[in-house]
Structures are given as structure tokens and as C-alpha cells.
Amino acid sequence: MAKETISKKGEKTKKGEKNSKAYTRREFLKKSGVIAVVAAATSVVGPFVLRGASKPIKIGTVFPLTGPLARIGTESLRGVELCVEEQNRRGGIKGREIVLINKDAPNPDAAVAAVESLATVEKVDVATGCYSSTITYAATAKAAALNLPFWVAPAIADAITDRKLRNVFRVSSIASDYGIYAAMMCAEIIAPKLGKKPEDLRVAVLYEDGLWGTTVSKFAIKKMRELKMKVVMSYGYDKETPDLSPVITKLKSIEPDVLAHAGYTHDAALFWSQAKALNFYVPAATGLGGGYSSREFREAIGKAAIGLLQVDYTPYNTNPKFAKGLDKLAQAYREKYKEPPYSCHSPCTYANMQVLFEVLEKAKSFDVKGIEEAALAMDKPLGTYVTGWGVKFDPETHQNLKAPPFGFQWQPDYRTDDILFPERHDGIIVPYAIYPEEARLPGTEVKWIPLPTWEEREKL
Predict the structure, then answer these.
(1) 391: β partners
(2) CA-based radius of gyration for the chain
(3) Distance CA 265, CA 72 (A)
(4) DSSP string of 93-116?
(5) Cα dihedral 22→25→27→31 (10° resolution)
(6) How many helices (H) and strands (E) does the chain have?
(7) CB 103 within 8 A of CB 128
(8) Residues 151, 352: contact at Cβ < 8 Å?
(9) 357 in helix, strand or coil?
(10) Which residues contact 321 (CB under 8 A, 6 or more apart)?
(11) Other beta carbons within 10 Å of 62
């Protein structure tokens, strides 16, 4: 059984589990004022107050910490850890400390086993996760069977909340919005840059054929057709494929104006590496979420990333006036992990926990009914949380209706005022928010559409 007491920062509690607590129990109680209260009231209630006040709130996390999704799974966990530490510094929730019990879930079966353990062995109050929509779909179904409240992030497939499970809530954006925003960026940004009307754009849609990829591509295609764009190809593939050259050869023969691609880090990097090798050129391209947001993607393809667009959670290079506290989160991340943030998934899970903690603070109980009542009573405007989101849950699906995705572009960083790499301005390629326009850092503009040729990119 995983330890339920507070461990030192980074101490292993069980193989595959890690307690992120950075304070001792006594330090936490002192910060939250509990020791002072107990000292003043000992003659009345004695140690009972200390025991009651010090009982931790246990939150279980379910993320892929090993396997091909591990890097973004770890980044997602880091957002949770940072928010938990901040909340504990403020005194926890109702004077109680928050403790994390972390589980590795690299696939749906592991996620189901993790949720069962968290509910029946560790007996957590709430669970959160999982990154992959396929993994999250399985985890939330198991949580529903065990009546365990589950706070989803990051996973975007609409099907997760469309089941209307009372125990499941999602603060973050959904796949249908990703598809819609990608189509809108094609119409409002790409078409004018290419000197075309939206109805003249020829778009190819490529996607991994799992739950996430099929969902986001379906909504992208639907919106593109509503905007009269010509969808000249729609192609799904197994994300584990070792070779995408056949589809690249087909794309070369079709010659689309725009490529819209839903791929995880590995397959997205594979596509662009092979596209360069086969000299496939497309004037504009946008990711539909997933791997296009990660530092690993940029490191894998190098200058091939320049000019690529992406729809995803709030990137760190977003105007702090639009996403309040995002710059401070980036600083806290660096201080804790001794490296720059890896992707936009950590702000997503941080905001997810911000909302959860407000719900738990107001909840009359931590069972499904108590959490549901507190969650449905919330109504906060856009701009409230670190991602620029607000919160208002749909009463049936429990999907947050105030969590739009963002559009961004990979650009060389020659600036001294960005958030992601403030110490570097040597041309490192980083993502900058571009859509909506008010999310942009001052001076940020859409560039490199049409995309440079392969030879031109190497000279940038």
C-alpha cells in the first residue's frame, strides 16, 4: 500500500508512485495556523483538533509516466504538483493538507488498475488524469463504476464527457473546439496569408486513428466544409506506425494548400522528418493538438518546425494580461524542476487543479454529490485562471463551457521579453500564441506563411 503520510520532497512511496510533498507535516500545520490554534485550545479539545485538522486530502493522479507518452504525462503531473504546493502554502483546503498519490498509466488497462487501487486501497478523495483520451476514457469509466470523483486533464475527446457521468468533470478544452479553431485559423490566418479566399483552400487532413485523432479531425473537417474549404484528403493511421512515407507520397501527388494533422509527438516528428527526406512541400500546416506542442517535437525535427501552426492548450508565450499568472507559473516551474517548461500541458493541469481546489473548498462533502453541487454552482469569467479560462460546467456533461483552445506558431526566438526562454534570444524555436490576437505577446506576428522551402528553413 502506498504511504499516506507526508514524505520528503521526491521520496519514493511505492514503485511507480511518488509523493510530491515539499513540506513536513509540522511545517504545513504551522503555515496553516493549525499548531497555533491547537496550542490555544489544548485544554478544551486536546489532540483531537490536531488529528482532525491534520488528516490530509488525498488526490490520486493517473498519468503515463513510462512508455511513449511519458514525457507529456510527466509534464502534466508537474502542473498538478506545482498547484498542490502553492495551495498547501496557502493552508491547504479547509485547513487540511493535500497529498498526491501518483500512478503510472501508460495504457488503458494500467489506467483501470490504477483507478481501482486509488479507490479501494489508497482510498483517495479525488482522482485526476490522464493525457491520452483513450487512456482517460477507460480510467473515467472505472472511476464511475467505483463512484470515485474524477477531474479530467489533459484529454480532449468529447466522448469522455458526452457519457454524462456524474463523477467526471473536465475543466480543459474539448476536441470539437480544437477542430473548429483549426478551421477558423485556416480561414482567418492562412487563407489571407496565401492570398486566397477560404473557399479556395485545398486542405488535407491527417490523423492518428485513436479516439482523440478521429474526434478532432471529424470536427475540423465538418467546420472546414461549413466554411466552403475543399477537403481533398482525409487519412487515418496507427500512431505506432514506423513509416508514413506512403501517405507523404500521396500528399505530394495531391499538392494541398494546407495540411491539418492530429498526431502524437513520435508520429508527428516521424511525418516531418520523412516529409523533408521526400521533399514534400506544403504552403501551410497546423497541428490539431497532441505532439505538435512539445519541446521533444521541436528537438526531433529542428528547423522543420519553423512556421508550423498548432491548436492546443495555452502556450507559455501568451500575454500575461490575457492569461493571468502564467509568467509566474513559468518561474515557479523553473525553480522547482531546474529546467524550462516542456509544453503547454502543465498550465492546463495547473488550471484544472485551481478549479478543483475551489470546488473542494466549497463542497459540503467530498463524495460525488457534494462535489457535483459545488462544481455546478461555479461561474467565473474568461481570464480567471492561469490558462485564460473561466469556468461554467454544463449541468449534464460536466464539461467546462469556458475553456477555449489557443492557436500558436513555432518561431525562432530572438526576443528578450518572452516567457518560455527569457534568458535566450539566440534563435531557439519556440511556440508563440497568435490566436486569438489579444493573446499575443506585444510585437508577436504571424510569419512564414507560406512556409519557407526546406533549403530556406536551413538558412533561418
Answers:
(1) 380
(2) 23
(3) 9
(4) BTTB-EEEEEEE-SSHHHHHHHHH
(5) 100
(6) 17, 14
(7) no
(8) yes
(9) helix
(10) none
(11) 32
Beta bridge partners of 233: 204
Helix (H/G/I), strand (E/B), else coil: 228:
coil
Length of the chain equals 460
Q: Which CATH architecture has domain 12-173+326-376?
A: 3-Layer(aba) Sandwich (3.40)
Three-point CA angle 402, 404, 409, nearest 5°: 160
- The fold adopted by the segment(s) 176-312+405-459 is Rossmann fold (3.40.50)
Alpha carbon distance 447, 450 (integer Å): 8
- β-sheet bridge partners, residue 53: none
Tally of CA atoms within 13 A in the half-sphere of 367 that contains its CB: 3
Copy the grid coordinates of residue 17: 508512485
What span, in angstroms and rounded, lies between the C-alpha atoms of 377 and 375?
Answer: 5
Retrieve residue 250's grid coordinates.
Answer: 500521396
Q: What is the mean pLDDT of the chain?
A: 89
- Domain positions in the chain are 12-173+326-376, 176-312+405-459
- The letter for the amino acid at 227 is L
Q: pLDDT tens track of the chain, all 460 residues?
A: 333 333 333 444 444 444 444 444 444 444 444 333 333 222 222 222 233 457 999 999 999 999 989 999 999 999 999 999 999 999 999 999 999 999 999 999 999 999 999 999 999 999 999 988 999 999 999 999 999 999 999 999 999 999 999 999 999 999 999 999 999 999 999 999 999 999 999 999 999 999 999 999 999 999 999 999 999 999 999 999 999 999 999 999 999 999 999 999 999 999 999 999 999 999 999 999 888 998 899 999 999 999 999 999 999 999 999 999 999 999 999 999 999 999 999 999 999 999 999 999 999 999 999 999 999 999 999 999 999 999 999 999 999 999 999 999 999 999 888 898 888 888 899 999 999 999 999 999 999 999 999 999 988 8
Instruction: Let me know: does 63 contact 102? Beta carbons within 8 Å.
Output: yes
Which cell numbers in the block locate residue 297?
517535437
Measured N-to-C along each axis, helices 211-226 and 175-185 cross at an angle, to the nearest 10 degrees, of 40
DSSP string, 253-279: HH--SEEEEEE-HHHHHHHHHHHHHTT
Cell numbers at 65, concatenated: 509516466
